[in-house]
Amino acid sequence: MARLYEYQGKKLLKEAGLPVPKGEVVSSASEGRKIAEQLDRPVALKMQVWLTGRAGFGGIQFAEKPQQAEKLADKMLDTKIKNFVVEKLLVEEKLAIKAEYFVGLIIDDAQKKPVLIFSTVGGTGLEEVIRSQPERVAYLYVDVRRGLQEYEVRNFLLQLGISARLLHKLSDFITKFYKMARRYDARSAEINPLVLTEDDKIYAADCHIVVDDYAVYRHPELQIEVAREFDRPPTLLEKIAYWVEEKDHRGTFYFFQMVEDVSGKENYIGFHGAGGGGSMMSMDAVLSRGFKLANYCDTSGNPAASKVYRAAKIILSQPNIKGYFASGSGVASQEQFHSARGLVKAFHEEKIEIPAVIRLGGNYEEKAIEILGNYLRHLAAKVEGYGRDDSPEFCAQRLEELIEENKAKKHKVRPIKEPEISPAAYSFETLTGKVYIDHQKCASCQSKGCIQACSAQILRLKEGKPILSITQEEAKKGKCTECLACEIYCTFHEKAALYIHLPILGLKEYRSRIIKDKK
Fold first, then answer.
1. What would the DSSP string read from start to end of 300-363?
2. pLDDT digits over 104-134, tens only?
């Protein structure tokens, strides 16, 4: 899920015709003073963080004068609160509050319906209100085919004894609130508190909206960087990983960085799972051995080899890890040789010097293990492949033993170098990359094995040289599945004439910065 900050949510409310306090988001103390001067009244300064209970840790402050607002803003900005460094404040008019309410919308997965929640108690934890004062909370399930009608909201509010004077204002507000949430595919949305002021006006004093990650592509105007429900802003490496997932629909790639600055004194490893349940069991196995996870990664749902390759390259962009552990479900329905080929290409390019234990249980696991064994045996550190009959606990034990044999050598991040491609190379684009074939090198190739290696049969020979058997447009649209089989065969069995370039947006620059910082 993708969280919006309060100021972003209030912008959507305002566009939907709902009243919000006047104010602006700022990123400096001088800007805070300027907005306070423009408002010309007492203001509230609110840290923009994805945390509840901001008032309890000083995340909401009040200023009577612009000078005071500037001092408070200077104190609040750049403060570290849990996983957040405060970069923005919302400076808005201070409201004269007479009453506080709660209104929220969530998706009830059991009922498969959105449900509106309204409480006559706001400004505090709803869970506590439900427990101690359930009579002050009402629920309304909405038929998404018919939509929400204002008369339904009025009847809904009457359950709580809302006065006739307020009934129209609140029902109009809630109806518009629901439409806004539906428009932006909100998985959840809440206003706490929804306030009634001394002059009998209502305002959304706070706002939290979470957009369904599968719908983020429909809302570029929201400028959501990562469609994941983090409890902190995403790291740059997480953004780079998400850009891979965003552009490639084949399977799932999830990457979460546990720690940005890996300490070489501790047993951090790169973790690469495949499938939720199996990945959890595998995590438990390595954690029980005293390892710490630099990251959590999942590639499942039958990802292309190119996607697994990119996942491995991103995991290996973390310095000081001492091992690489890949293990997921033991009965995965995906063809595991795709994952094996992706890892072979990544490990071969990286020339990794830390051990890796790869458990690829599922379809064609024997072939996957064979691929790993054939093509990674000459690396500086050992890479071992295992299948469904080898437990995660056994594989974790093997990683521990291999790290000890390797004298706990730490991973060094290498710069990403652009491949040296002959200007005369034959080439064609794929869904996410580009294939280059040096036909001069192909002239001395005896086997032409790249043709047989290509299970999609998109290559053919013309005058002894491999070329596309389909149109370039078809290859670009995905008929070339980026299985990497042709490159691996040519690299290890023939003349290294074929190279598949799979760029990763932002990773070259990221590594350059990491390497520079470590010097």
1. ESS--HHHHHHHHHHHTTSTT---EEEE--TTB-S-HHHHHHHHHHHHHHHT--S-EEEE--BT
2. 999 999 999 999 999 999 987 888 888 888 9
